[in-house]
Predict the 3D structure of the following.
Amino acid sequence: MTVGAASISLQDADSLGGDDSILMRQRRDHARLDAMISRCQSEDLPADELDALWLDIVQLVFSHAFAEETVLWPLLRRVAPDGEALTRQVEEEHQQINELIARIERSPDDPRRAEWLQQAFAFVRQDIRDEEDELLPHLRVAFDDRKLRRIGAAWEAVRATAPTRPHPGVPRRPPGNALRGVPLSVFDRLRDLAPGSGPAARRASLVAAGAVAAGGAVVLAVRFARRTRS
């Protein structure tokens, strides 16, 4: 870790650039994931509620990670002395999570499913620790509050339109992740639509609009990451 760069888990909002900074946005997502995982592990939920909670976790994990890989890690590779090694490690963690959750989704009746779920939760929590302790502090060192907020807005735009399911075959780095991931985002969000949530034509039109937004958001975010300097 960069000298003087404390874990973002130990700092308040003002120290991290304000509520809209990328560091606070990351922390909020991480806290939400941790709370949902704890609920899955500690409560005797009915099967339908557990399934809904698991879907919420999956959707957040993959939209969050895709936005990181598109917006944040390219910046870190430029501003952190060991950025290549750090981002390669977390990309490997993301790939492990992708492969494991894809296996869980393919095998709902496998007797090992409960064990795989616990492994997935452990991987996600390790990824959160690595990001908050090792990667994200470099952004605090490299960028002022205003830039941290601009990075946060770019990351949020990509996260809102990113794939929401595991896709182990998608590259972890741009531009490959964008070229492969944006079309899959449309497919994922069609799967995510709740039955009976509205007329089919209306739902399809919303997804189509989301596809256009997704493509535009990712292109703009990649350009933003390339332009941003410390």
About this structure: The first helix runs from residue 22 to 42. The radius of gyration is 18 Å.
